[in-house]
């Protein structure tokens, strides 16, 4: 299904019945990543998936897809579906958007479940990586997509989960180049949201992976725990839905049941 946000058509799907849960994918991912989770939640909840603008089947809506703009798309979808309050589950960039949503629409957020994600802004080194990524995306998009997705998994996982990783890449190769660049620009300019996380009064959870090349597990665990977040570290790299699926599903189910 689709709904219109500003000048773009946004793809979403709705499953099941009950309190609402919105699943927010990460960068270079799409709502397809959630297929293992949907049947586990949709007996007891209304589960909503969506593709962020410029990814999956959603159109690009701006030159920069800031985390706030994407949070506004989530809010518009909830309004469109006449849902007053929802739990957000966000993988990586989807977690950055969940935090932007918490800042903008705190009253509409029931629970926040962040997977392989962080409240930290990009370091200056990481911002330089974003500039390199933007250049490479303009010149050799396929090479960038392939390298980025492979590098999120540990070396061991790249071999063991080759097919799943290739399936993610195949989906991402079809995204519009400018849509991917818009998300890179949005992530580069996002601000630190540790205070937002600390101040969010509802239940909050964070799943980290020991060898995630993007999110430093121990440091993030310590800070998040201090901020009142129920935090857990599991094995594997940044792609827990592939590399450690059972642990991720268990973590989410417990957080939802809590
Ligand atoms: C993601 O998985 O959403 C991205 O890797 C996050 C990032 O690049 O910061």
Low-confidence stretches: none
Largest sheet: 8 strands, mixed
Widest sheet: strand ordering: 1-2-4-3-5-6-7-8
What is the 3D form?
globular
SSE order, as H and E? EEEHEHEHEHHHHHHEHEHH
Which class of secondary structure composition applies to the elements?
Answer: alpha/beta
Rg over C-alpha atoms, rounded to the nearest angstrom? 17 Å
What ligands are attached or bound here?
Answer: D-malate
Instruction: Count helical runs.
Output: 12
Helix content: 40-55%
Record field, number of beta strands: 8
Short structural summary:
The chain has helices spanning 38-41, 67-80, 93-104, 124-139, 141-152, 155-160, 162-172, 177-188, 194-199, 217-226, 240-243, 245-257, and strands spanning 2-5, 8-15, 20-24, 46-50, 86-91, 109-115, 204-209, 230-234.
Describe the structure.
This protein is of the alpha/beta class and 258 residues long. The chain has helices at residues 38-41, 67-80, 93-104, 124-139, 141-152, 155-160, 162-172, 177-188, 194-199, 217-226, 240-243, 245-257, and strands at 2-5, 8-15, 20-24, 46-50, 86-91, 109-115, 204-209, 230-234. It has an eight-stranded mixed sheet with strand order 1-2-4-3-5-6-7-8, sandwiched between helices. The protein is globular and about 45 Å long. The model has no long low-confidence stretch (mean pLDDT 98). The structure holds D-malate. Residues 26-27, 92-93, 187, 214 line the site of D-malate (MLT).
